[in-house]
Every structure is written in C-alpha cells, then in structure tokens.
Amino acid sequence: MDSNTDPLVIGQTTLSSRLFVGTGKYSSDSLISEVLKRSGAQVITVALRRMDFHSQVGNVTDYIPSGVQLLPNTSGARNAEEAVRIARLAKAAGCGNWIKIEVISDNKYLLPDGYETVKATEILAREGFVALPYISPDLMVAKRLVEAGAAAVMPLGAPIGTNRGLKTRELLRILIDEIPLPVIVDAGIGRPSHACEAMEMGAAACLLNTAIASAADPGLMAEAFGKAVSAGRQAYWAGLGGRQEYAQASSPLTGFLHE
Amino acid sequence: MSFYEQYLKYRDYDSAGCNPGSKTIERILGQDRLLPTDFLALLSPAAQPYLEAMAQKARRLTVQHFGKTILLYTPLYLSDYCSNQCQYCGFNVRNPLKRKQLSLEEVEEAARRIAATGLKHILILTGDARAISSPDYIADCAGVLRKYFTSIAIEVYAMTQEEYGQLVNAGVDGFTIYQETYNEEYYDLIHVSGPKKDYRFRLDAPERACRAGMRSVNIGALLGLDDWRRDGFFTGLHAHYLQNQYPAVEISLSLPRIRPHAGEFQPRCPVTDKQMVQFLLALRLFLPRAGITISTRENARFRDNLLSLGVTKMSAGSHTAVGAQIDKEENAGQFEISDPRNVAEMSAALRQMGYQPLYQDWQPIGDR
C-alpha cells in the first residue's frame, strides 16, 4: 500500500499526501515554502481576511508553490451569510473553488456553529464550491452536511490552537464509521503522535497549523508530521492488532478443562 | 444587565490588600482556567516573585493562540475639539489650544499617505464635541477611509447604541474606549465637567457597541490615575464580562500609561515598568484569547521587551496631533508619544525579533 494505490480524492482532485497545513501563525511567511516542502503537504489553508491582493509588501500566497491546492477559509465569519460572502470574495479574488467553511461566533473557545455551518455549506455546494466544513464532531451535523453536499467533513480533535490532541476521540470514531465522506481531523492536533493516532483510526487526513508554527524548528516539525500521517495511514491499512484485557499465558491455568 | 452590577459586587474588594500566599500563586499558575479571584491574586504583591514563571506561561499561551504575529495599526486624529474638562488630557476644553478638525479632503489626503505605508487597519479619534465632530461627521470620514483601509476602528466619545449602529453601517468595525478609571468617586473628581462626567454612560459604552454589531471591541483604563491593581482588576473583569456576554465579538485590551501632555496634572499612582509587566502577564493568563495592545505611549525598548509577553497589536507611525499626517498639525497633540518608529522601522524591528508584522487581519464582507 502506498500513496499511488491509496489516493485521497476530494472533489475532482486526487492527493497523494494526507497532511493539510495552515498558514496563520508563522513568524515569517517565508517559512511556509519550507513547511510545504518538508511535510509533503499538498493542501494549504489561508485566511481570506489576511490576504491583501493589492499589497506592496507581499502576501502569503507568494510563498505557496503552484501545484499546491489552496484552501481559503472563512475565518471571521460569525454566521452563514458572512461565510458565504467570504467564500465568494475568495473565489472572485482567484483563490479557486475550494473553501474551508468556518463559522465561529464564540471567540472564547472558537467552537464552530453547526447550524450556521450547514446553512453555508448548502449554499456554497450548490454554487459549485468544494465545501469542507469545520465542525464539532457531531454525528447529526455531519449527516446534514453530507446531505448539503460537503466534499469532506473536518471535525475538531480539540479546540483550535490548544495542541491537546484527540480529546474528541470517541466522537471522531463515530464520524469515521458513519460518514461516507473523507473525515479530516482539524484542530487540536499538537504532536505527530496525535496525527498518527487519527490516521490509525481511519481519518482520511489531518489539518494542523499551531503545532508546526509554534515549534522551535517548524521545518523539522513539518517533516515529522508528514511521516506521522503516512505511518498512521499505513497502520490503518495494515490492521491494528486487537487489544486484550489480560495477557495470554503460554501455560493456561484452565487448560486442564480441555484435557 | 450591565457590567456595573459586577462592578458593585467587587467594588469593596481590597485589591491593594489582597496578598495570598505563595502556595496559592503556584496553584493558580498550574491551572488552565482562572477565576476572577485568581486574576486578582496574580495582580497582588505575592505574585511578584513569580513574574518569570508567569511570563513563560503567557508567552506560550500567546504563541499558541495568536502565533508569532503582531497586528500593526496607526491612529488618525480627526478633531481635537472637546467640551470636557478631564484633568489628565491635553484636549481639555480649558487648555489654550488652537483647535482643528480635518475636512473630508484632508482625511482623504491623510488616508492616502497612511495607506502608502501598507497598513490596512486604522484607528480614528476625536475629542468629545458632538456638536462639531458629530456621528454624521465620523460616518462621513469612515466613508472616505473605507476606500483605503479594510478595518476602521473608532476611539471617540461614548455614543448611543443607535449611533454605533450608524457607524457600523458606515464601515466601522472596531471600537475602543477607555474607562480611564473604574473608581467611580475618583472618576467624578477628575472629570470636572462635560458629558464624559457620566460614569455609567461611559462604562456601558462597550456593551452598546457589542450590541450594535461592532466586530471588535477594545477597552482599557488609563494607568496612573488610580491604584493600578484596582483598575487592572476591573479592566480584566470587564473584558471577561464582555467575552461571556458577547462571544461573537473579539474583545481586546489596551494598557495605556498616562503620558506628559498640555496641562499640569500629575498621576497620583504612577505605574512602574515592573508593575506594567505584572498587569500584562496577569491579563494574558486570565484571558488567553483576548487581544492586547501596546501603543506608542511606551518607548521602543520597553515595547520590544513586552513583545514576547502577550502583546498582539501595536501602533506604528503614530501622531497624536490633528493634521500631523498631512503636515498641518498646529499643536502638540493629546499626549507625547515615546516610540517614534514609522511603519517600515517597526516592521523591520518585529522581523528581527522573530515576529511577522500583519498589515491586514480583516476583510470587510458587508456591502461596502
């Protein structure tokens, strides 16, 4: 099993890397090209709110090589209407038709608004966007998103930027089991081992930003995440051994019953 | 519902006398979430030996939530006409200034010059003279500025919710107001006359701005007027209240220290650098997601050192006199600034310290 035989297909696009990265927190945008190169990531999310298309001092997109899929996000949107407007602005600005739908009206914990997210997804999918909604891992919201035409669902592992790992593990597992779309674990992944675990569980991909951007050596951490995601995916296909409650003794105590 | 109810609840707390033991401070430093009383403890003298530990945690939280980025903005003074007698302010109606208000043409010229630096965030300020710098005038100025900037914030006199709504419709998305001091009795004393004398109307202004649809709301106390621990505590408590009541609004705080100005007033409670740092760190630990602004009231060296302690926004290329951006200032301004670096110099300094200067962090999505 390798990336040639196990591609990730989102919309009409086939990806060989299952790691998505963000752009938001780097000390310099120039680090982004190194992160992409060393991680092997082929999808990168950018906040439209930070893109100045008339800037004389450059933009984050200057550091994203062609061939890398741009995933503009609707960061800043507090309801469906604002998310739709941002998505249309991004498309009009030449960012393509992929959109990560973030609808957050809670600035304290940055938890997504499922109801407004479904509404935005319905509108944008109908308009031809490849809609990737960011959600809390709620099965019923995810089912509504499938009906609404989402191309994938992006449940959080823990609140954005917390690096706490897969705190929503049991709910993620339900989504992976029940939703017939790629499940991309987004937010909360703080360590390569967290990403690896998500992939072992059967997640289609992982998206992360803070864990790389806040590392002492972002390039090296990006490389580590690239490997962790690949390793987790391999383990998923290899089939993890079952867990036993007790050790299996080589000299069983109840063997005499079978004599 | 108003923050005033919380103010009354805590008003008689002896914040200056609050001095928990070292064990309490250590326990608080190990917590993920802090209660108002924990915040008060971090402002206390007992927390002073723990400044480095607080700084390490504050830095980690800030990088985690905001990354190594600093949003840059610049102030634009539209008018220095004022009808208040605030003892600490250079715009005091009794101060013999030659007053000025920018025409819309002058606003446009200033906007052009500021926009040429690359900045996309601007903060517009006026004195408190609503007969001259009326909500209509401010809305007209916003109409000019929105051609050049993606974010327009106001720092003007307290208005009604309807007036804030009018400004939101005109393209204003950010709001700043300083309560100056939360000490109601002292507030009354230093605001000798004028509409600003109404403590409650000013105290509730951020809440009216939140209700009117402002995207970001910034509050603060003018450090030096009253005991910094007391005003610092109420500032944090106020921000905490607004965060809980209006979760869709980005709440941030400024930490202005009183500066020399045209007048004789001397702060009765000067705040040292060390105390300022303690306040900033306690705020960051209490409100990990709140923006924190340090303006050019502080000098370059101090600002550079505060950078890694929790700051998320800084002003650059600042002038506090009306007309300064178009070479038409006619007085010394509201107060003296301490960090004269222009936008390019500020950006270079940030990059050198391992931070990315952000010129834009908002894209208007309304019908502008």
Automatic annotation (TrEMBL), chain A:
Database matches in CDD domains: ThiG
UniProt EC number: 2.8.1.10
An individual GO BP term: thiamine diphosphate biosynthetic process
Gene3D superfamilies assigned to the protein according to its UniProt record, in alphabetical order: Aldolase class I
Subcellular location: Cytoplasm
Enzyme class: transferase
Keyword Oxidoreductase set for record: no
Subunit structure and binding partners: Homotetramer. Forms heterodimers with either ThiH or ThiS.
Family membership: Belongs to the ThiG family.
Function: Catalyzes the rearrangement of 1-deoxy-D-xylulose 5-phosphate (DXP) to produce the thiazole phosphate moiety of thiamine. Sulfur is provided by the thiocarboxylate moiety of the carrier protein ThiS. In vitro, sulfur can be provided by H(2)S.
Protein known as: Thiazole synthase
TrEMBL record, chain B:
CC cofactor: [4Fe-4S] cluster
Keyword check for Iron: yes
Radical SAM core domain segment(s): 68-284
GO BP annotations listed: thiamine biosynthetic process
InterPro entries cross-referenced by the UniProt entry: Aldolase_TIM (IPR013785), BATS_dom (IPR010722), rSAM (IPR007197), rSAM_sf (IPR058240), ThiH (IPR012726), ThiH/NoCL/HydG-like (IPR034428)
Pfam families: BATS (PF06968), Radical_SAM (PF04055)
Keyword 4Fe-4S belongs to the record: yes
Keywords on record: 4Fe-4S, Iron, Iron-sulfur, Metal-binding, S-adenosyl-L-methionine
A molecular function GO annotation: 4 iron, 4 sulfur cluster binding
Cited PROSITE patterns: RADICAL_SAM (PS51918)
Record protein name field: Thiazole biosynthesis protein ThiH
Organism (species): Acetonema longum DSM 6540
